[in-house]
Amino acid sequence: MNLLIRKVLGVATLFYGAKAFTPTTRNRLSAKSFLSAISLSAAQCLDKSFTPPDISGIGGITEKACDDAAMRLNRVNVPVPEYICSDGEVGISFIHWEAEKKTNTLPIILVHGFDSSCLEYRRLGPKLAALGIETYAVDLLGWGFSQLKSVNTFSAQAKVDALAGFWKVIGGGKPVCVAGASLGGAAAIEYAAAYPDVVKACVFIDAQGFVDGVGPMAQLPNFLAEAGVQVLKSVPLRSMANEMSYFDTEKYAT
Fold first, then answer.
1. In this structure, are strands 89-97 and 108-111 parallel, antiparallel, or unpaired?
2. CA–CA distances in Å: residue 213 to residues 14, 16, 192
3. Which helix (H) or strand (E) segment is 70 a member of?
4. Residue bearing the bigger pLDDT, 221 or 82
């Protein structure tokens, strides 16, 4: 049964991460040229209609770290190519933990894994900030509390372009370290490859990688893909996957 669950999760991650992704120099250059022409401040781009979710007690969530992180959530409208959104911008949610002391350390962007959100880093974020690191946990496009309406594609390339747009607005395109887990690691790899002048360091946590096509999986009909999502949403599967993923299955802690 455990092997079956691993295969289901692995296939779903591969399909949703790579189905629409074909990394080409033209794609990377067009997105990079697009961002180079943008000059926006974070204050101008904050989504003032966004309200941090009150997750206290919802679904049995009682962890204070999770509640504290959720209250820090913001969403910013970041510039993206029109193939992602016709408006030329999309809302990306994130958490910022300010450095508690001054250091010369690069700021860090924490990118979550498949079927997750920036709340994944609710415990790590404050610890990094305490060490003097400006820390940002960001939701990949299509996950967490990011914008869903009016978005044309949630492809892997779109995720990378939105991530680049996020740091253009929030960090001004300054040098940064990007840390990614699983699917987030794949996004970090592509971001670093496309923007070596911005991404000066990377941390990969069980990172995956995007590939040029996924063989027969690329032909998977949408209705089967949607059925796969329903399977992933099932409580028994998610409970078993959580127990497989964490050392302490009571607290879901490693």
1. unpaired
2. 10, 11, 20
3. helix 64-71
4. 82
Name 34's Cβ contacts closer than 8 Å, sequence gap at least 6. Answer: 79, 81
How many Å apart are CA 33 and CA 29, to the nearest integer?
A: 6
CA distance 23 to 190: 9
Alpha-carbon distance of 112 to 116, in angstroms, equals: 6
Q: How far apart are CA 215 and CA 108, in angstroms?
A: 34
Residues present in the chain in total: 254
Are 132 and 103 within 8 A, CB to CB? yes
For the CA atoms of 226, 47, 54, 205, what is the dihedral angle to 10 degrees? 60
Nearest by Cα to 119 from 47, 60, 53, 214:
53
pLDDT of 222-242, one tens digit each? 777 677 777 877 878 877 877
